[in-house]
Amino acid sequence: MEQYTDDERVEDLKQWWKENGASIIAGIALAVIGIFGWQYWTSHRNATAEQASQAYDAFIEAVEKPDADQARQRGQALLADFPKSPYTALAMLRLAKLALEDGATAVANQRLEWVVENAKLDELKDVARLRLAPVLAAAGRPGDAEQRLAQVTTASLIAEREELRGDLALAANDPGKARNAYAAALAASGGSTLLQLKLDNLSPPTAESLIAAPAGPPPAARPANADARTDGPPAEADTPAPAAQRAPAPQPETAASSPASAQPEPTQALTEPAGAAGPATPPAPAVAPPAAVPAPAPAAPATGQ
User: Fold this and answer.
1) What letter does residue 261 receive in the DSSP assignment?
2) Does this model's pTM top 0.70?
Protein backbone atom coordinates (compact mmCIF):
# COMPACT_ATOMS: atom_id res chain seq x y z
CA MET A 1 0.00 0.00 0.00
CA GLU A 2 1.47 3.26 -1.05
CA GLN A 3 2.08 5.88 1.61
CA TYR A 4 1.18 9.53 0.96
CA THR A 5 3.92 11.96 1.68
CA ASP A 6 3.33 15.35 3.22
CA ASP A 7 3.88 17.04 -0.09
CA GLU A 8 1.24 14.89 -1.72
CA ARG A 9 -1.28 15.69 1.02
CA VAL A 10 -0.66 19.38 0.58
CA GLU A 11 -1.13 19.11 -3.12
CA ASP A 12 -4.42 17.23 -2.68
CA LEU A 13 -5.68 19.84 -0.22
CA LYS A 14 -4.82 22.63 -2.59
CA GLN A 15 -6.60 20.85 -5.39
CA TRP A 16 -9.74 20.33 -3.25
CA TRP A 17 -9.77 23.95 -2.14
CA LYS A 18 -9.35 25.06 -5.69
CA GLU A 19 -12.43 23.08 -6.66
CA ASN A 20 -14.66 23.84 -3.62
CA GLY A 21 -13.26 26.92 -1.95
CA ALA A 22 -15.38 29.39 -3.89
CA SER A 23 -18.58 27.57 -3.00
CA ILE A 24 -17.69 27.47 0.68
CA ILE A 25 -16.89 31.16 0.77
CA ALA A 26 -20.11 31.98 -1.03
CA GLY A 27 -22.12 29.84 1.41
CA ILE A 28 -20.54 31.51 4.42
CA ALA A 29 -21.16 34.92 2.92
CA LEU A 30 -24.78 34.08 2.22
CA ALA A 31 -25.26 32.80 5.76
CA VAL A 32 -23.81 35.97 7.22
CA ILE A 33 -25.89 38.12 4.92
CA GLY A 34 -28.99 36.10 5.75
CA ILE A 35 -28.49 36.45 9.48
CA PHE A 36 -27.89 40.16 9.35
CA GLY A 37 -30.62 40.62 6.76
CA TRP A 38 -33.16 38.77 8.91
CA GLN A 39 -32.23 40.87 11.91
CA TYR A 40 -32.58 44.01 9.86
CA TRP A 41 -35.93 42.91 8.44
CA THR A 42 -37.24 41.96 11.85
CA SER A 43 -36.16 45.28 13.27
CA HIS A 44 -37.70 47.15 10.35
CA ARG A 45 -40.94 45.20 10.62
CA ASN A 46 -41.19 45.85 14.33
CA ALA A 47 -40.50 49.53 13.80
CA THR A 48 -43.13 49.70 11.06
CA ALA A 49 -45.66 47.89 13.23
CA GLU A 50 -44.93 50.29 16.07
CA GLN A 51 -45.43 53.28 13.79
CA ALA A 52 -48.65 51.80 12.43
CA SER A 53 -49.85 51.15 15.98
CA GLN A 54 -49.17 54.76 16.98
CA ALA A 55 -50.94 56.02 13.86
CA TYR A 56 -53.91 53.78 14.62
CA ASP A 57 -54.05 55.05 18.21
CA ALA A 58 -54.18 58.60 16.89
CA PHE A 59 -56.95 57.55 14.52
CA ILE A 60 -59.00 55.99 17.34
CA GLU A 61 -58.50 59.11 19.44
CA ALA A 62 -59.99 61.20 16.64
CA VAL A 63 -62.91 58.77 16.28
CA GLU A 64 -63.74 58.86 19.98
CA LYS A 65 -63.58 62.67 20.34
CA PRO A 66 -65.57 62.54 18.02
CA ASP A 67 -63.86 64.39 15.17
CA ALA A 68 -65.00 62.77 11.93
CA ASP A 69 -62.90 64.96 9.63
CA GLN A 70 -59.69 64.32 11.54
CA ALA A 71 -60.53 60.62 11.76
CA ARG A 72 -60.89 60.44 7.98
CA GLN A 73 -57.58 62.23 7.46
CA ARG A 74 -55.71 59.93 9.81
CA GLY A 75 -57.38 56.89 8.29
CA GLN A 76 -56.26 57.96 4.84
CA ALA A 77 -52.72 58.48 6.19
CA LEU A 78 -52.74 54.94 7.53
CA LEU A 79 -53.89 53.65 4.15
CA ALA A 80 -51.12 55.53 2.34
CA ASP A 81 -48.23 54.74 4.73
CA PHE A 82 -49.09 51.24 5.95
CA PRO A 83 -51.36 49.57 3.38
CA LYS A 84 -50.38 46.04 4.45
CA SER A 85 -50.76 46.56 8.18
CA PRO A 86 -53.65 44.94 10.08
CA TYR A 87 -54.16 48.32 11.73
CA THR A 88 -55.07 49.77 8.35
CA ALA A 89 -57.76 47.12 7.86
CA LEU A 90 -59.17 47.93 11.30
CA ALA A 91 -59.17 51.62 10.43
CA MET A 92 -61.05 50.92 7.20
CA LEU A 93 -63.71 49.02 9.15
CA ARG A 94 -64.18 52.00 11.46
CA LEU A 95 -64.29 54.42 8.53
CA ALA A 96 -66.95 52.25 6.89
CA LYS A 97 -69.01 52.45 10.07
CA LEU A 98 -68.69 56.24 10.12
CA ALA A 99 -69.76 56.38 6.49
CA LEU A 100 -72.86 54.29 7.23
CA GLU A 101 -73.76 56.59 10.11
CA ASP A 102 -73.51 59.54 7.72
CA GLY A 103 -75.63 57.74 5.13
CA ALA A 104 -72.75 57.42 2.65
CA THR A 105 -73.40 53.81 1.69
CA ALA A 106 -71.21 54.01 -1.42
CA VAL A 107 -68.20 55.07 0.65
CA ALA A 108 -68.92 52.35 3.20
CA ASN A 109 -69.14 49.79 0.41
CA GLN A 110 -65.77 50.93 -0.93
CA ARG A 111 -64.08 50.71 2.48
CA LEU A 112 -65.44 47.23 3.18
CA GLU A 113 -64.51 45.95 -0.26
CA TRP A 114 -60.96 47.18 0.32
CA VAL A 115 -60.75 45.15 3.53
CA VAL A 116 -62.06 42.04 1.77
CA GLU A 117 -59.47 42.38 -0.98
CA ASN A 118 -56.41 43.57 0.98
CA ALA A 119 -56.60 42.43 4.60
CA LYS A 120 -53.98 39.86 5.59
CA LEU A 121 -56.09 38.19 8.28
CA ASP A 122 -59.00 36.00 7.24
CA GLU A 123 -60.92 37.02 10.36
CA LEU A 124 -60.87 40.67 9.29
CA LYS A 125 -62.00 39.70 5.81
CA ASP A 126 -64.96 37.79 7.24
CA VAL A 127 -65.91 40.70 9.50
CA ALA A 128 -65.91 42.96 6.44
CA ARG A 129 -68.10 40.46 4.55
CA LEU A 130 -70.62 40.38 7.41
CA ARG A 131 -70.86 44.17 7.41
CA LEU A 132 -70.95 44.34 3.64
CA ALA A 133 -73.89 41.94 3.24
CA PRO A 134 -76.62 44.24 4.66
CA VAL A 135 -75.19 47.16 2.68
CA LEU A 136 -75.52 45.17 -0.53
CA ALA A 137 -79.01 43.98 0.39
CA ALA A 138 -80.13 47.54 1.09
CA ALA A 139 -78.77 48.56 -2.31
CA GLY A 140 -81.01 45.99 -4.01
CA ARG A 141 -78.31 43.36 -4.49
CA PRO A 142 -79.51 40.40 -2.40
CA GLY A 143 -77.60 37.91 -4.56
CA ASP A 144 -74.28 39.64 -3.87
CA ALA A 145 -75.16 39.85 -0.18
CA GLU A 146 -75.79 36.10 -0.02
CA GLN A 147 -72.54 35.47 -1.87
CA ARG A 148 -70.60 37.47 0.69
CA LEU A 149 -72.25 35.59 3.54
CA ALA A 150 -71.40 32.27 1.96
CA GLN A 151 -67.71 33.26 1.99
CA VAL A 152 -67.63 33.68 5.78
CA THR A 153 -65.82 30.64 7.21
CA THR A 154 -64.45 31.82 10.56
CA ALA A 155 -65.84 29.47 13.22
CA SER A 156 -66.49 32.22 15.75
CA LEU A 157 -68.59 34.14 13.20
CA ILE A 158 -70.88 31.31 12.02
CA ALA A 159 -73.67 32.17 14.47
CA GLU A 160 -73.57 35.84 13.47
CA ARG A 161 -73.54 34.85 9.80
CA GLU A 162 -76.66 32.69 10.15
CA GLU A 163 -78.49 35.31 12.22
CA LEU A 164 -77.76 37.95 9.59
CA ARG A 165 -78.90 35.54 6.90
CA GLY A 166 -82.17 35.10 8.79
CA ASP A 167 -82.63 38.86 9.18
CA LEU A 168 -82.13 39.40 5.46
CA ALA A 169 -84.54 36.58 4.61
CA LEU A 170 -87.16 38.01 6.96
CA ALA A 171 -86.75 41.44 5.37
CA ALA A 172 -87.29 39.77 2.00
CA ASN A 173 -90.56 38.23 3.27
CA ASP A 174 -89.21 34.67 3.31
CA PRO A 175 -90.13 33.37 6.79
CA GLY A 176 -89.26 29.77 5.96
CA LYS A 177 -85.67 30.59 5.06
CA ALA A 178 -85.44 32.94 8.03
CA ARG A 179 -86.64 30.18 10.37
CA ASN A 180 -84.00 27.75 9.11
CA ALA A 181 -81.27 30.38 9.42
CA TYR A 182 -82.27 31.28 12.98
CA ALA A 183 -82.29 27.61 13.94
CA ALA A 184 -78.77 27.18 12.53
CA ALA A 185 -77.61 30.32 14.35
CA LEU A 186 -79.11 29.08 17.61
CA ALA A 187 -77.31 25.75 17.25
CA ALA A 188 -73.99 27.45 16.43
CA SER A 189 -74.24 29.91 19.30
CA GLY A 190 -74.90 27.27 21.93
CA GLY A 191 -78.08 29.01 23.06
CA SER A 192 -79.08 32.64 22.78
CA THR A 193 -82.17 34.24 24.27
CA LEU A 194 -82.50 36.73 21.42
CA LEU A 195 -82.17 34.03 18.77
CA GLN A 196 -84.69 31.86 20.60
CA LEU A 197 -87.18 34.74 20.63
CA LYS A 198 -86.68 35.32 16.90
CA LEU A 199 -87.18 31.63 16.22
CA ASP A 200 -90.27 31.40 18.42
CA ASN A 201 -91.87 34.32 16.60
CA LEU A 202 -91.52 32.46 13.31
CA SER A 203 -92.13 28.87 14.41
CA PRO A 204 -95.64 27.48 13.71
CA PRO A 205 -97.66 26.47 16.80
CA THR A 206 -97.16 22.87 17.91
CA ALA A 207 -99.52 20.51 19.71
CA GLU A 208 -97.64 21.09 22.95
CA SER A 209 -97.99 24.86 22.67
CA LEU A 210 -101.76 24.53 22.17
CA ILE A 211 -102.30 22.60 25.43
CA ALA A 212 -103.86 24.93 27.91
CA ALA A 213 -101.71 25.80 30.86
CA PRO A 214 -103.01 24.68 34.29
CA ALA A 215 -105.28 27.18 35.93
CA GLY A 216 -103.74 29.21 38.66
CA PRO A 217 -105.13 29.55 42.19
CA PRO A 218 -108.44 31.43 42.49
CA PRO A 219 -108.20 35.04 43.53
CA ALA A 220 -108.57 35.74 47.20
CA ALA A 221 -112.04 36.77 48.37
CA ARG A 222 -112.40 40.48 48.78
CA PRO A 223 -113.40 41.53 52.30
CA ALA A 224 -116.68 43.36 52.71
CA ASN A 225 -114.95 46.46 54.05
CA ALA A 226 -112.25 46.49 51.36
CA ASP A 227 -113.62 49.71 49.90
CA ALA A 228 -113.43 51.38 53.28
CA ARG A 229 -109.65 50.72 53.58
CA THR A 230 -108.60 53.23 51.00
CA ASP A 231 -106.71 56.47 51.04
CA GLY A 232 -109.80 58.52 50.25
CA PRO A 233 -112.79 59.24 52.48
CA PRO A 234 -115.21 56.34 53.06
CA ALA A 235 -118.22 56.06 50.82
CA GLU A 236 -121.44 57.47 52.19
CA ALA A 237 -123.21 54.17 51.66
CA ASP A 238 -120.97 52.48 54.28
CA THR A 239 -121.65 55.14 56.98
CA PRO A 240 -124.99 55.02 58.84
CA ALA A 241 -127.00 58.20 58.50
CA PRO A 242 -127.71 60.24 61.64
CA ALA A 243 -131.06 59.84 63.31
CA ALA A 244 -132.11 63.34 62.33
CA GLN A 245 -131.60 62.52 58.65
CA ARG A 246 -133.54 59.28 58.66
CA ALA A 247 -136.83 59.28 56.81
CA PRO A 248 -139.88 59.02 59.10
CA ALA A 249 -141.60 55.70 59.23
CA PRO A 250 -144.69 55.55 57.02
CA GLN A 251 -147.96 56.09 58.90
CA PRO A 252 -150.64 53.40 58.63
CA GLU A 253 -153.45 54.22 56.33
CA THR A 254 -156.74 54.98 58.21
CA ALA A 255 -160.27 55.44 57.24
CA ALA A 256 -159.84 59.20 57.33
CA SER A 257 -157.20 59.02 54.60
CA SER A 258 -159.18 56.65 52.41
CA PRO A 259 -159.81 57.78 48.87
CA ALA A 260 -163.54 57.41 49.43
CA SER A 261 -163.59 60.33 51.88
CA ALA A 262 -164.33 63.66 50.35
CA GLN A 263 -162.06 65.61 52.72
CA PRO A 264 -159.52 63.58 54.68
CA GLU A 265 -158.98 64.60 58.28
CA PRO A 266 -155.74 64.50 60.21
CA THR A 267 -154.98 61.36 62.12
CA GLN A 268 -155.03 63.21 65.42
CA ALA A 269 -158.78 63.95 65.00
CA LEU A 270 -159.58 60.26 65.24
CA THR A 271 -157.84 59.96 68.58
CA GLU A 272 -159.23 63.05 70.37
CA PRO A 273 -162.52 62.98 72.37
CA ALA A 274 -165.56 64.62 70.95
CA GLY A 275 -166.06 68.26 71.85
CA ALA A 276 -162.43 68.86 72.84
CA ALA A 277 -161.26 72.37 72.10
CA GLY A 278 -157.91 73.71 71.08
CA PRO A 279 -155.46 72.80 68.35
CA ALA A 280 -154.36 69.23 68.18
CA THR A 281 -150.63 68.57 68.71
CA PRO A 282 -148.98 65.67 66.93
CA PRO A 283 -147.77 62.91 69.20
CA ALA A 284 -144.07 62.11 69.58
CA PRO A 285 -142.89 59.42 67.17
CA ALA A 286 -142.18 56.87 69.92
CA VAL A 287 -145.12 57.77 72.33
CA ALA A 288 -148.57 56.29 71.92
CA PRO A 289 -151.45 58.81 71.60
CA PRO A 290 -153.44 59.49 74.87
CA ALA A 291 -156.67 57.60 75.41
CA ALA A 292 -159.92 59.44 74.76
CA VAL A 293 -161.66 60.82 77.94
CA PRO A 294 -165.48 60.32 77.99
CA ALA A 295 -167.67 63.41 78.49
CA PRO A 296 -169.49 63.69 81.95
CA ALA A 297 -173.11 62.62 82.04
CA PRO A 298 -175.72 65.47 82.37
CA ALA A 299 -177.43 65.97 85.78
CA ALA A 300 -180.97 64.57 86.21
CA PRO A 301 -183.79 67.22 86.39
CA ALA A 302 -185.44 67.87 89.78
CA THR A 303 -188.96 66.49 90.29
CA GLY A 304 -191.73 67.98 92.45
CA GLN A 305 -192.98 66.18 95.51
Assistant:
1) S
2) no
